[in-house]
Amino acid sequence: MGRESELRRRICSRTKEDFLPEESFKSWENYVKALKQTPSRLMDRVLTRSKDEAEVEVKSRSQHEMKKTLSWWDLIWFGMGAVIGAGIFVLTGLEASQDAGPAVVLSYVVSGVSALLSVFCYTEFAVEIPVAGGSFAYLRVELGDFVAFIAAGNILLEYVIGGAAVARSWTSYFATLLNYQPDKFLIKVNTLADGYNQLDPLAVGVCIIICFIAILSTKGSSRLNYVASIIHIIVIFFIIICGLIKSDTKNYTPFTPFGARGIFKASAVLFFAYVGFDAVSTMAEETKDPGRDIPIGLVGSMVITTTLYCLLAITLCLMQPYQNIDPHAPFSVAFKNVGWSWAQYIVAAGALKGMTSVLLVSAVGQARYLTHIARTHMMPPWFSYVDGKTGTPVNATAVMTAATAIIAFFTKLDILSNLLSISTLFIFMLVALALLVRRYYVSGVTTNANRNKLIACLLVILASSAATAAYWGLSDKGWIVYCITVPIWFLATLGIWLFVPQAHDPKLWGVPLVPWLPSASIAINIFLLGSIDKDSFIRFAAWTGFLLVYYIFFGLHASYDTAKEFEKSKEWKNLEDGNGTLPTSKNAPTKSDNN
Q1: What is the pTM for the complete model shown?
Q2: Are the C-beta atoms of 423 and 161 separated by less than 8 Å?
Q3: What are phi and psi of 183, to 5 degrees?
Q4: Residue 395 in contact with residue 367, Cβ under 8 Å?
Q5: pLDDT tens digits, residue range 510-540?
Q6: CATH number of the domain that 258 lies in?
Q7: In a domain, 358, yes or no
Q8: Helices (H), 249-289
Q9: Where is the Cationic amino acid transporter C-terminal domain positioned along the sequence (predicted)?
Q10: Which residues does 334 contact at the CB level (< 8 Å), separation at least 6?
Q11: What are the C-alpha distances in Å from 417 to residues 50, 86, 136, 380, 426?
Q12: How far apart (Å, rounded) are the C-alpha atoms in residues 383 and 403?
C-alpha cells in the first residue's frame, strides 16, 4: 500500500512549481515582461540548436536514470510489436475494398519503402544520440528548438491518435472473437456529431490496463510483448498458409480496379500500418549497446514486418473478391466466408494479441517522447519525472495514456487513420531533412559558399517534391508536370552529391547512399501527403495552430529561461550555440567557443 500511495501521490502532485517553475512565471510582472520580449526570444529559439552532448546531459533532469536492460533481440520484438496491429488487420480490408483492390499489396510496398528509408534516418540518429527523445531530440539538434517543438506536438498527436485507433480496433476484433458483429460493443449517441457518436468504453478499459503495465517496468513490458508477439506471428503464419489453401486466383482479376491513383491513395492511409517503429528509437536510452543493437533492431524489424504485410495482403485478396472484403474485421470474416468459421476465432485472438502489443509499445514510446520534451521545459517538467524504483516515466505514461483513452472513446477509425498518417509523414520528412543538414553542415567546417549551396538544393528538393504532390492531388490524368518536377528533384539531389562536401562522418553507423536515400525519403513522404483528404489537412492545421499558441505563450518562455539558466552554469557551457544565418552545428567549435 505504501508503494501504491507514493505512486498515486507522484502522479497527482500538481503544484505551480511542478508545471511552471521558470523565472518568467514567478509573477505576473515577470510574465508580462517575458511576453514583451517574445520576438527576440522567438528568434533566439529559432536560430539555436542543441548539441548531441546536451541531449544526453538533460537526462539528469528526470531525477533518476532509465535502466539499460534492452538488447537488439528486445528491440526487434518491440519493433514488430509496435507496428503489426490495427494497420494490417483492419486497414487492409478498408483500403482493398474502397481504394486499391488486390493491388493493395503494391500500396504496402510503396509505404514500406518510405518507412524503410525513414528507418535508416532514425537509426543513424538513435545510434549517435541515444536518448529517450527520439525524433524530437534529433530535430532539436539539427533544425533548432522551434521546429523541434512543432514536430514534437505532432509526434505526441501521432501517438495518441495511433493508440486510440488501435484501441477501437481491439474492440471490433474482441466482438468478432465472441461471434458478434464488430460494432456490438459500441454505444451510439445520436446527439453527438457523426464520426464521434459511437462511444467505445472497452477501448478505455484496455488503455487503463496497458497504462499500469507500462508504468511497472520496461523489461516487464518487453517480456509481455515477447509472449504477445510470438503468438501473433504464429497466427499470421496460420492466416497465410490456411488462407492460401482457400485461395482462388480469379479473385485477383481485375488487379488494379482503381488505377494508380487508388494505389497511392491507399499507400498514404496504409502508412498507418508502419507507424510505431520510431517508438523503438525512443528506447535507445535503455539499450545496452546502442551502436550494435539499434541498427539490428530497427532495420531488422522493419524488413520482417514489410514482408509479412505483403504476404497477408496477397492472401486476403486471393481468398475473396475485393468487393466482398469486410472493412472492420477482414481476415476473420474472410475465413467465415470460405467456410472455415472456426478459423475466425484464431484470427481474432491473434489480432487481439497483436493490437495489445501495439498499445503497449505505443504507451512506452509516447511516454519517453513526452519525458524528453519536458526535460527541455517546452512542456512542464512534471512530465519528466522518472520513478527511482521502476525506472519508468510515471507521470508521462499516465497522462498520455489518459489522452489516448479519451480520443478512443469518441472517434471513429477512418478519421483517426487519415490524421495519423499526415502527422507521421510530416515528421518523417523533417527527420530526413535533418539528416542531410547533419551530414553536410558543420559550423567552422562548412564554408559559407557550401552552406548556401546546401540551402539552395534543400529548398529545391522540398519545392519540387511539394509541387509533385500538389499536382498529384489536384490533377486526375495529367503527367506533364511530373516531367518537370521529378528531374528538378533529381538535379537538386545531384547538386548536393557533386558540389557540397560532407562535413560530418557518422561515428558508429551511417545511412548508405547519402544524399540519395534521405532525399528520396523527403520526396516520397511529401508525395504521399498529396493523397490525403482535405479534412485531414484542416485538422492538422488546427492542431498546429494550437501548438503555436501554446508555444508563444508558454513553451517559448519556459524553454528560453531553462536554456539561459544552464548556459550560466558550468555543466551547460558550450552545449548550446546559435547563429544568425543558419543554426550552428554541435560538432565543431564556433568563434565564441574558442574565446
Answers
A1: 0.79
A2: yes
A3: -95, 15
A4: no
A5: 899 999 999 999 999 898 887 777 777 888 8
A6: 1.20.1740.10
A7: yes
A8: 259-270, 277-281
A9: 509-559
A10: 243, 316, 319, 320, 325, 326
A11: 33, 10, 22, 29, 14
A12: 14
What SS3 state is found at 187? strand
H or E stretch at 198: strand 198-199
Rounded to whole angstroms, the Cα distance separating 267 from 235 reads 25
Cα separations (Å) of 562 from 59, 76, 292, 443, 568?
A: 14, 36, 34, 24, 10
Number of domains in the chain: 1
- Domain membership of residue 60 (yes or no) is no
Are residues 154 and 426 in contact, defined by beta-carbon separation less than 8 angstroms? yes
- Separation CA 318–CA 316 (nearest Å): 6
The answer to whether residue 468 is domain-embedded is: no
Amino acid found at 289: D
**Nearest to 214, CA basis, from 81, 376, 22, 44:** 81
Residues near 401 by beta carbon (within 8 Å), at least 6 away in sequence: 163, 207, 208, 210, 211, 214, 363, 367
Whole-angstrom CA distances from 122 to 135, 281, 320, 515, 519 are 7, 7, 38, 15, 14
Q: What is the phi/psi pair of residue 149, to 5°? A: -70, -45
264: containing domain: 68-413
- Compute the residue count for the chain: 595
**Which pLDDT value is given to residue 214?**
84
Which residues 6+ apart lie within 8 Å of 178 measured at CB? 184
pLDDT at 509 over 90: no
* Per-residue pLDDT reduced to its tens digit, 432-477: 999 999 999 987 888 999 999 999 999 999 999 999 988 887 777 7
